[in-house]
Each structure stands twice: as C-alpha cells, then as structure tokens.
Specification:
- This protein is of the alpha/beta class.
- It has one domain: Rossmann fold.
- It is 34% helix and 27% strand.
- A hairpin with a 6-residue loop joins strand 1 and strand 2.
- The chain binds adenosine-5'-diphosphate (2 copies).
- The site of one adenosine-5'-diphosphate has 12 residues, from strand 2 and helix 1.
- InterPro entries: AAA+_ATPase, ABC_transporter-like_ATP-bd, ABC_transporter-like_CS, ABC_transpr_LolD-like, MacB-like_ATP-bd, P-loop_NTPase.
- This is Putative ABC transport system ATP-binding protein.
Length: 229
C-alpha cells in the first residue's frame, strides 16, 4: 500500500543544508496500524508530510497503492491526497468560520460530490465519531477532543485507504486521547490503514507496529501486541 525507497529530504532554508531524512525505506501494508516514533527533530513530521503528499522530497521513490506518486505536480498531489489519504493534524486545522458540518463536507466539495450526498455522508461521518448532534456548531463552540473528532470525520469522509495523523493527541488530555485512539482502532478494525506520529509511548501501545526514527534514519521497526481499548 505504502512503499517508499531511499527517500532523502534536505531543508535548505537556513545556512547549512539540513538532511531531515536520509535514504529512508519503509513498507506499510493494508490493514496495518503503525506508530512513527522518535525524539523531537528526528524527522517524524517530515516523513508524515511526505507520506501525506503535503511536501516533496529530494530523491527516492514513493508508491501509493501501486501508483508512483514521487513526482506529482501540486494539483495532481492534491487530487490523490483528497481521494486516497485522510490527514489529521495535531492542531485540528478546522475552518473557524464554517460549521462542523461544512468542515466535514469540504473534501467532498473538492471531489465535486453533489450537495445532497455531501450532506448525508458528512452527517454519517460525524455520527461515526459520536458528533451527530453537533453539526450546526462552529469549531470554537466545541472542546479540543470534539474538534479532533470533527477532523477525523473530515479525514474519513472520502473513504480514504489510509488515515494519517501527526501527533493527533498532542493537544489533548489523557482521557480524550483514549477516545481518539479508540476511534482509530475501530476504523483500523474496519479496514482502514492507519499511520500515526506520536512521541508518547503510552499512545503507541494502541498500535500494532512501531517505527522508530533517530536523526533522520529508521533506528528500529517492530510489530507489537496491540493494547485494545
Ligand atoms: P520531528 O517531527 O521528529 O520533531 P521534523 O521532521 O519536524 O522532526 O524535523 C526534522 C529536522 O528537520 C529537524 O532538525 C528540524 O529542525 C528540521 N526541519 C523541519 N522542518 C523544517 C523546515 N521547514 N525548514 C528547515 N528545517 C526544518
Ligand atoms: P513538530 O516537531 O511537532 O512537527 P515543530 O515545532 O518541529 O513541530 O515544527 C513546526 C513547523 O515548523 C513545521 O511546519 C516544521 O516544518 C517547521 N520547522 C521545524 N523546524 C524548522 C526549522 N529549523 N526551520 C524552519 N522551519 C522549521
């Protein structure tokens, strides 16, 4: 499903070029639930942004569902992302002026889904994350955990094959963190592949595989007995 080979990413923004990822190779199969771990600055977010087609890389190849997505234009990348990838951010990234329903409809607007179907699917996705009764609210009227559930509804509304999340529980308390991990486990059990960055070992326990980054390389990669919620 995800097949990357020898991916190198160099940031050239400051003085010295910085090698954030150094020839990373990684395969993720359908149905996996993987935690990307490692200390701050080890390259986790850079990896996630590349996997989510939010950023480019300098060399190497990336195959997503058998298709070479290494050299897409911004437009092509956005198209593939909207169709095949759901992305969840640490800081939710909801549109503040839109209602929760409109936020969840947005990926379907980009996919030209007709209004009535958009509405039905958005309501369904919100019910899926336990927020069917909050559709008319705006993001500033709900809690952080609820915002992240809206973001998950938005991420799954186009039924992506893979759900990606960068520190999705980084801004949440421990009880809300478990709510989010439970939703991820349920979606994974229903067949969605999940890849998630976390630096918290307690959060990684709920996944089936840990990939450990250190200084831009993969230091360790092992399956584990998943703690079920
Ligand atoms: P992590 O997510 O593990 O904290 P990052 O992927 O954010 O690591 O960062 C990896 C390295 O790349 C760090 O040294 C970081 O400072 C650097 N870096 C990340 N983003 C940028 C950027 N946009 N410009 C320059 N350097 C960056
Ligand atoms: P995280 O590690 O949780 O992803 P950071 O605080 O490292 O968050 O980075 C936040 C944002 O700043 C990211 O978009 C990242 O690309 C950018 N960034 C990180 N390090 C640098 C850097 N050294 N120079 C420029 N941008 C950076």
């Amino acid at each position: 499903m995800i097949e990357i080979k020898d991916i190198t990413k160099i940031y050239r923004t400051g003085g010295e070029p910085l090698v954030a990822l150094d020839k990373i190779s990684l395969s993720i199969q359908e149905g996996e639930f993987t935690a990307i771990m490692g200390p701050s600055g080890s390259g986790k977010s850079t990896m996630m942004n590349i996997l989510g087609l939010l950023d480019r890389f300098d060399s190497g190849t990336y195959y997503l569902n058998g298709k070479d997505v290494s050299h897409l234009s911004d437009n092509e990348g956005a198209h593939v992302r909207n169709k095949e990838i759901g992305f969840v951010f640490q800081s939710f990234n909801l549109m503040p002026r839109m209602t929760i329903l409109e936020n969840v409809e947005l990926p379907m607007v980009y996919a030209n889904v007709p209004k009535k179907e958009r509405n039905e699917r958005a309501v369904k996705a919100l019910e899926r994350v336990g927020l069917g009764n909050r559709v008319k609210h705006r993001p500033n009227e709900i809690s952080g955990g609820q915002k992240q559930r809206v973001a998950i509804a938005r991420a799954i509304v186009n039924t992506p094959s893979v759900l990606m999340a960068d520190e999705p529980t980084g801004n949440l308390d421990s009880k809300t963190t478990l709510d989010i991990m439970r939703i991820f486990q349920e979606l994974n059990a229903e067949g969605t592949t999940v890849v998630m960055v976390t630096h918290e070992p307690e959060v990684a326990e709920y996944t089936k595989r840990v990939v450990l980054f250190k200084d831009g390389v993969i230091r360790d990669d092992y399956p584990q007995q998943q703690k079920i919620l």
